[in-house]
């Protein structure tokens, strides 16, 4: 093992004179909560202290402790030269010349071919956004909001008009959710600060949620999709068991927080109806208050001030609150089905240290392209391309998709494409399969 720490490490993990060289064995020893190293482009960095100050949160960078993080680093950071000034003080050495550039089960040929593809895609301008696309998308959201209010203001608050108003507001909320997702992934403006600013406006003022809450959860999901204990989207707090590994583990340990063999049935009561109006609201408030994120709280409150100013005069306080909850209830169904059909039926397992392409393809699938599917899902029917290129503007996913499929075919990686209906039914069938696995293990193992 090459270490040579005495030679090149200064105070706080800073590099001093000659660079130290390390083996992967040495790097992989540093993956605990308070001792974290990672590798980017063969350079070894000590992120133990920096992780707490990482803008994306300590978890997302900590997930790559003891690993090669080059592909994730490239995927998430648009201005890598700017980020280098933060990395430089953390540099403690590099991999020994005899060591491979990647660790674990990562496939060097796939990594090289994907880097070639990414470089070519960037040269072809597929990371450049079309401002008109996003302006029109924002316009149709604002138009739905305005028309919904004007309709009940002018024609009255009958049950029929109120229902139509709720559907229009739920549609605008769902579409604003896809739009904030674009800005959150830094895929609209060239400068990150403009993406962050508009992200706060869209998610805060138009949706009533916190940008910091979304960033920390969503980037963790992208960094390690469908990886148990790392992806928050598969952390079901014991309400559901997912995939083929977790149900057996729960069954063998005789864990029965819920009757999991019926989870495909109670999913309809606990999943789509409650996620947005209850779970997300509580999570948002907890994040903003516990972390004292007053900027996000101000944006959050601006949504409710605007909403109640518009609807309390028409419905009263109780009616306005009820309308808002009903809108969230409708939006929640939309959100859950779109987001879960791409991931829930796919492989869900513990960390396997796969390369970027293999990891993302095992955890994601696509839904067929159509005008409706693109609009309905915010182009997340191209979930594979989105996960491989999270900073790519969504209007370009269909252009890169044939190249991604060719890469997968070359390396024998499954590229799954489904109809919208099949994607939704697979959510239920996968929950039933996982529940049956749990019951079998609970009774017989």
Automatic annotation (TrEMBL):
Source organism of the structure: Poecilia latipinna
EC number: 1.14.19.44
PANTHER family linked: ACYL-COA 6-DESATURASE (PTHR19353:SF12), FATTY ACID DESATURASE 2 (PTHR19353)
Keyword Metal-binding: no
Protein name in UniProt: acyl-CoA (8-3)-desaturase
Catalytic activity line of the entry: (8Z,11Z,14Z,17Z)-eicosatetraenoyl-CoA + 2 Fe(II)-[cytochrome b5] + O2 + 2 H(+) = (5Z,8Z,11Z,14Z,17Z)-eicosapentaenoyl-CoA + 2 Fe(III)-[cytochrome b5] + 2 H2O
InterPro entries tied to this protein: Cyt_B5-like_heme/steroid-bd, Cyt_B5-like_heme/steroid_sf, FA_desaturase_dom, Fatty_acid_desaturase
Broad class of enzyme this protein falls into: oxidoreductase
Any one cellular-component term (Gene Ontology): membrane
Gene3D superfamilies to which the protein is assigned, alphabetical: Cytochrome b5-like heme/steroid binding domain
Annotated family: Belongs to the fatty acid desaturase type 1 family.
Alphabetized SMART domains for the sequence: Cyt-b5
Domain of life: Eukaryota
Transmembrane segments: 132-155, 266-283, 303-327
Species classification: Eukaryota, Metazoa, Chordata, Craniata, Vertebrata
Protein's pathway: Lipid metabolism; polyunsaturated fatty acid biosynthesis
Chief location bin: membrane
Domain Cytochrome b5 heme-binding: 19-96
Topological type in the membrane: Multi-pass membrane protein
CDD domains in UniProt: Delta6-FADS-like
One GO-annotated biological process of the protein: unsaturated fatty acid biosynthetic process
GO molecular function: acyl-CoA (8-3)-desaturase activity
């Amino acid at each position: 093992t090459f270490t040579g720490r005495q030679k090149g490490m200064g105070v706080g993990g800073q590099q001093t004179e000659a660079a130290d060289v390390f083996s992967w064995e040495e790097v992989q020893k540093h993956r605990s909560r308070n001792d974290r190293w990672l590798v980017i482009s063969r350079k070894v960095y000590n992120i133990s202290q920096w992780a707490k100050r990482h803008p994306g949160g300590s978890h997302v960078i900590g997930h790559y402790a003891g690993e090669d993080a080059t592909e994730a680093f490239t995927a998430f950071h648009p201005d890598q030269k700017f980020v280098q000034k933060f990395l430089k003080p953390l540099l403690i050495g590099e991999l020994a010349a005899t060591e491979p550039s990647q660790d674990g089960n990562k496939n060097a040929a796939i990594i090289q071919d994907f880097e070639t593809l990414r470089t070519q895609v960037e040269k072809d301008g597929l990371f450049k956004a079309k401002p008109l696309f996003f302006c029109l998308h924002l316009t149709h959201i604002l138009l739905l909001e305005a028309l919904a209010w004007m309709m009940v203001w002018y024609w009255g608050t009958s049950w029929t008009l109120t229902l139509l108003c709720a559907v229009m507001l739920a549609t605008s909320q769902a579409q604003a959710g896809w739009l904030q997702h674009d800005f959150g992934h830094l895929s609209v403006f060239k400068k990150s600060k403009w993406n962050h600013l508009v992200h706060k406006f869209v998610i805060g003022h138009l949706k009533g949620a916190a940008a910091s809450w979304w960033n920390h959860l969503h980037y963790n999901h992208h960094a390690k999709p469908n990886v148990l204990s790392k992806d928050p989207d598969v952390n079901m707090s014991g309400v559901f068991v997912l995939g083929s590994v977790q149900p057996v583990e729960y069954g063998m340990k005789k864990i029965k927080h819920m009757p999991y063999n019926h989870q495909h049935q109670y999913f309809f009561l606990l999943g789509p109806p409650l996620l947005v109006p209850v779970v997300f609201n509580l999570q948002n408030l907890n994040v903003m208050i516990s972390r004292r994120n007053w900027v996000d709280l101000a944006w959050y409150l601006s949504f409710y001030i605007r909403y109640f100013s518009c609807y309390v005069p028409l419905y009263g306080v109780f009616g306005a609150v009820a309308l808002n909850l009903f809108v969230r209830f409708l939006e929640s169904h939309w959100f859950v089905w779109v987001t879960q059909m791409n991931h829930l039926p796919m492989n869900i397992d513990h960390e396997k240290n796969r390369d970027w392409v293999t990891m993302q393809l095992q955890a994601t699938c696509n839904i067929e392209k159509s005008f409706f599917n693109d609009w309905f899902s915010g182009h997340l029917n191209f979930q594979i391309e989105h996960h491989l290129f999270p900073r790519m503007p969504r209007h370009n996913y269909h252009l890169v998709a044939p190249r991604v499929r060719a890469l997968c075919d070359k390396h024998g990686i499954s590229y799954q494409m489904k109809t919208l209906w099949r994607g939704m039914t697979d959510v239920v069938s996968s929950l039933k399969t996982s529940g049956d696995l749990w019951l079998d293990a609970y009774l017989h193992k």
